[in-house]
Structures are given as C-alpha cells and as structure tokens.
Design goal:
The protein is mainly α. 83% of the residues lie in helices and 0% in strands. The protein has one domain. Helix 1 packs parallel to helix 3.
C-alpha cells in the first residue's frame, strides 16, 4: 500500500520542486539559483522515471497478468510530466530574463536627483 502511494507521489515531485524553489530563486530569496533548481529538477525527473519503472516492474511481477502494458503507461505519464517540467522551466527562465533586463534598463535610465 505504501509503495502504491509513493508511486503516485513520485510523478509530480520534481514539478512541484521546480515550481516552489524556482519562484524563490526568481524572487531572489531562495538558497540556490534558478539554473541549479532546473538542473536538480531534471535529474530528479530522470531518477523518478527510473524508480517508477522499477516499482511498476515489481507490481507487474506480483500481479496475475504479466504483460508489460502498464510499463508503457508509466513511461508515457513520466514523459508528460517531463514535458510539463521543461515548460515550467522555460516560463521561469523567461520571467527571470525579463526581470533582470528590466532592472538593468531602470538603472540606466534613472533621472538625476541632484539638480
């Protein structure tokens, strides 16, 4: 029972990690930078795919039917979550780029206060 709960929780874990720590990194109050959060999320997604595939193989061995069709479903769901993760990383990178560009632009065009 615990393995089944862990199996379903693992699917979205890298995506949730990216959203939480990516927002903190963009705001500047996070402990790590956005590129490192993105790298950790991608590595996490790969490891979650391997762990979920292993868990599904265990479930298939214990089940009465021994076909590999659920394994294809697990890989497809992991692929969907991987694409969502890349989409979130892209959006957060664009947001950070625009914020840094706006900060640089505001520093260059500040009016002189001492007139």
């Amino acid at each position: 029972m615990i393995l089944k709960v862990l199996f379903y929780i693992l699917f979205g874990l890298p995506l949730v990690f990216q959203m939480i720590f990516g927002i903190k990194a963009i705001r500047g109050n996070g402990p790590i930078k956005l590129w490192l959060v993105s790298l950790l999320s991608c590595v996490g997604q790969l490891s979650v795919t391997i762990i979920n595939s292993y868990l599904m193989a265990m479930f298939i061995r214990q089940a009465e039917s021994h076909d590999g069709l659920p394994m294809i479903g697990v890989l497809a769901v992991n692929m969907i979550f991987g694409v969502l993760l890349l989409f979130v990383i892209l959006i957060q990178s664009v947001i950070q780029y625009r914020l840094t560009r706006a900060k640089k632009h505001n520093k260059q065009t500040t009016p002189l206060d001492s007139k």
